[in-house]
Amino acid sequence: MANKLDQKPCWIIIVPEYNINAFATNLNFITLYNGILDQVAGDSSPIACLFGH
User: Fold this and answer.
1) Which 3 state secondary structure label does DSSP give 43?
2) Domain count across the chain
3) What does pTM read for this prediction?
4) What would the pLDDT profile of 1-50 be if each residue is shown by its tens digit?
5) Which residue range(s) make up the domain with 16?
């Protein structure tokens, strides 16, 4: 990538709050809330879609 963010480590943060939300920052932080993890019920496909989005 032109911004070279793919050369930096990716950090995943789980927020212990019931909220159906996730977001990413330009510093390779991906934040997931407990509520969205409850919704996907352990299925890795929706989580992969979140990361890809």
Assistant:
1) coil
2) 1
3) 0.69
4) 566 656 778 899 999 999 999 998 878 888 999 998 888 887 889 888 87
5) 5-52
